[in-house]
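User: I'm writing a short methods note and want a consistent example. For Helix-turn-helix transcriptional regulator, I'll paste the sequence; you return only the C-alpha cells, no commentary, since I'll be parsing the reply automatically.
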Amino acid sequence: MVKAVSTNLAILRRARSLSQADLGEAAGISRNHYQLLESGAGASGGAANPRLSTLSALARTLEVDVTTLLQPPSAHAFWQWIDVHDEPSDDFRAALLDQLLTRSARELGGSGAAFVGWADGSMTVGIGVLASGSPAATIVGRAQVEAALTEVGLAHASTDEFEVDAGLDGLSDDGHI
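Assistant:
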C-alpha cells in the first residue's frame, strides 16, 4: 500500500502542476512530511504510515477520493475530442503525436502509447497514462493532452468530451492503429 500511495501522490501532484511544498501546504502538512510520504519513507526511517486524516486532506486537495490514493496504478487510455475547423496537416498531426508519445512514455515508464485522428471537424487524441482509476486517469490525461496541444500551438482547444478506458486498447506505440 505504501508504494501505491507514494506513486499516486507523485503522479497526481505532477498532473496538478504542484510542487511538493505547495501540495503539503494546501493539505495542511509540512513540505518535509509530504516529501517523506511521496518517497514512501517514515520520519524514523521505516516505511511511511500516514494517518487517514492526512490521506483525506491530500485527496481533497488533489480532488480525488482517498481510495484513488490507495489503489495500485495501472495503464489507462485517455481519449479526448478537439474541435478543429480545418483538417490539420500531416506535419501538425505528426508533431502532436510525437508530443503525446513522449509524454506517455514518461508517464508509463517505458514505451509510450498514443493516437491522433481526424474526422468531420473533430480531432481525436489518445494517450496512455499511469493512474489508479478513471478519476486519476482523467486528471493526468487532461494535463498531458493540454500540455501537448500547447506545445504544438493549439492551446485551449480541447473540449469537455473525453473517455477513459483501463488498459491501452486502441493506442499504439507508433501512433498508428
